[in-house]
Amino acid sequence: MKAVITLAGEGTRLLPATRGLRKEMLPLFYRGVQGTAVLAPVVHHVVRTLVGAGVREMALVVGPDQGWVRRYFEPDEAFLRRHRSHPERLRETLALERMLRGVRFHWIVQRRPRGFGDALLRARGAMGGDPFLLHAADAVLREPHEGALPRSLEQLREREGASAVLLVRRVKDPRRYGVVEGRLARTGKGPGFLEVRAMEEKPAHPKSPWAATAIYALSPEIFPLLAREARPGGELEVTQGLRALLEGGHRVLAVRLPKPGYAWLSVGSPEGYYRALQKTYREALRTPERR
Questions:
Q1: For 171-197, how does the pLDDT look when each residue is reduced to its tens digit (9 = 90+)?
Q2: In whole angstroms, what is the distance from residue 46 CA to residue 18 CA?
Q3: What is the rounded distance in angstroms from the CA atom of residue 33 to the CA atom of residue 48?
Q4: Which of 57, 148, 163, 275 could form a disulfide with 2 if both were Cys (CB 3.0 to 4.6 A apart)?
Q5: Which one-letter DSSP state was computed for residue 133?
């Protein structure tokens, strides 16, 4: 399976913390190999989720200062040699390298932040005409089994012959999000899903409480439609491509974020980052249930 991760935004809502440090490199907690709370960048959590979903080829859309994220994910023998006298400090780095064995990365530069859709469109060549997962790197999905929900989105897309499957969640103020309208459908094969009828980006008068998260299972059909929607110098959103799919008669589905046990944690604002930091710390300290 393939995936696109977008992390080229400047994170201006988090200034001055993000001046010189991309928001995707802000740390969140997870439970480390020794059972202790460990800090790792947000994008590390996203990659863990996608590897858990079965992704073995990832296109990372980065800004022109891409060195920071490449250095994090690419093996560095010199770094390991410098710190070999303290092997306990290298446990998580070595665990990351083991996790990434067999995973291929493509590095794609978005020179100017021109929207989520523009970032996705730049990864078209790397996807090679195959279906793929799309995940923004400024939010993380918390779930009981890492990667299971994104994998189920792709399985549903393939089973139902859909062009796109979105993960949506109920929110109190949909005006801040891309809002999905649809009707509940059931096939007898697991939980129901929404047959999407319309999508609107940050509507003044939302017609639904369902907001799109930044995880999608997509077919390559979305790329020519995004290219058609692009305007020189303008911003391009994924919502535009999804609306074009709907207008062209393509099938778009939405899966509702299950509860309890699941959470979507955005770090796009100071308040969101603080909540994510608190929640991941509590989770990292929690004793795993015996099976």
A1: 988 888 889 999 888 665 556 799 999
A2: 19
A3: 14
A4: 57
A5: E
